[in-house]
Design a protein that fits this description.
Radius of gyration: 30 Å
Number of helices: 13
Helix content: 40-55%
Number of domains: 3
CATH architecture of the largest domain: Orthogonal Bundle
Low-confidence stretches: none
Structural class: alpha+beta
Strand order of the largest sheet: 1-2-3
CATH superfamily of the largest domain: Intergrase catalytic core
Order of helices and strands: EEEHHHHHHHHEEEHHHHH
Number of strands: 6
Distance between the termini: 83 Å
Oligomer: single chain
């Protein structure tokens, strides 16, 4: 293993420069050639005459020794990035943008859009000239606080954004653009419970009986309430993904757009009614479904006499809460929703517990 020594070399004007001497030599990650020196851009006076010069020499030597000790630790851990002139100067915001662009074709549009949004907040926080060398633990903590202060996003959105930011920081570390992962020991932003709107069974039936000008959106919404599928998976659903088993039961075999996981989901008779006559294998099941139409769901809900803010995603919440309230165990519901973590599904269980508490509280003796 190389040893690191602090050396002095005479330069002009009665001064000496301080540099590090590596023996045996180590390989520079830029040139791939062995090197023995790292210039520290520190100097001392060869013959200090004043107290100021003596103090300068003392502080410069202490700093040089501190750097020498750190370099020795770096070498012992196998890190040689300190010799690179390019890594720490790479623009981190541009790196973030480039990483986000790789997600355009490999993830859902909503996930890609999240990375684009994070980039905007990152530029607002750090400016356009933030380098990888600027990204340390304090930087990461300050960015977390910055996201929480934004009135334009909720606490839980800030939490999701910060987790994605940490993921990109880790990627920069893996690519050896950052010496250590400064976000590794920083906790994620704590999620807060949010009110998840859903429909009761009577409300869902009432909505199913209410006409809506966008027929594919109406059927897709009810299909979501009967299957728990997200809009992103329903929108891309093709007929070849709807298959029939040997015992004449229908199911969907598809890849979740959000997670990329392969899923198999059984279909009920009511869910089958919403998809209509079978089309060509590669045709979309809901071919006229357009995302911009979802903003008119509120008109349909109001026409059904339901006075709550219901979005398309509320139908997935409806599926989960109705399943639990009708006795389906939480493990099965978690699998039907495609959740990787049972804790994600427990949010719906808490909603059911609240409803039970409200129910028993209605019976009073006085």
């Amino acid at each position: 293993m190389s040893k690191v020594f602090l050396r002095e070399k005479k330069i002009s004007k009665g001064r000496k420069s301080l540099y590090l001497d590596f023996y045996p030599p180590i390989v520079n990650p830029d040139t791939r050639r062995p090197t023995r020196r790292e210039h520290l851009k520190l100097y001392i006076y060869d013959r200090p005459k004043t107290e100021i010069q003596k103090e300068h020499n003392k502080e410069s030597k202490m700093l040089g020794e501190s750097i020498r000790s750190q370099r020795q630790l770096d070498i012992q851990s196998g890190y040689y990035g300190f010799l690179s002139s390019r890594h720490s100067n790479i623009n981190f915001v541009n790196f973030f943008d480039a990483f986000a662009e790789t997600k355009r074709e490999t993830t859902s549009k909503s996930n890609y859009d999240s990375y684009v949004s994070i980039s905007r907040y990152l530029r607002s926080f750090a400016g356009d000239n933030c380098t990888c060398g600027d990204v340390d633990e304090a930087f990461c903590r300050d960015f977390s606080d910055f996201l929480l202060r934004q009135e334009s996003i909720s606490n839980n959105t800030a939490a999701a954004y910060f987790d994605k930011f940490k993921y990109v920081v880790k990627e920069a570390f893996l690519q050896k653009l950052i010496k250590e992962n400064p976000a590794e020991n920083i906790r994620s932003i704590k999620l807060v419970d949010t009110k998840r709107e859903f429909l009761s069974l009577d409300e869902l039936r009432k909505l199913a009986e209410t006409p809506f000008r966008y027929e594919d959106l109406r059927r897709a919404s009810l299909f979501s309430a009967l299957t728990g599928l997200r809009y992103s998976d329903i929108e891309k659903l093709t007929w070849k993904e709807i298959q029939k088993s040997d015992n004449n039961n229908y199911f969907i075999r598809f890849r979740q757009k959000k997670t990329g996981d392969n899923e198999t989901l059984p279909l009920s008779a009511d869910a089958l009614e919403q998809i209509g006559p079978r089309g060509s294998e590669n045709d979309r099941v809901f071919e006229n479904l357009k995302y911009h139409q979802t903003k008119f769901i509120s008109d349909w809900v109001e026409a059904a006499g339901i006075n709550r803010k219901i979005t398309f995603h509320s139908f997935r919440h409806t599926f989960a809460t109705l399943q639990l309230s009708l006795g389906t165990d939480i493990y099965t519901v978690s699998k039907l929703l495609g959740h990787k973590n049972l804790q994600t599904t427990q949010v719906y269980a808490r909603v059911i517990d609240e409803r039970k508490q409200q129910a028993v509280d209605r019976i009073k003796l006085s």
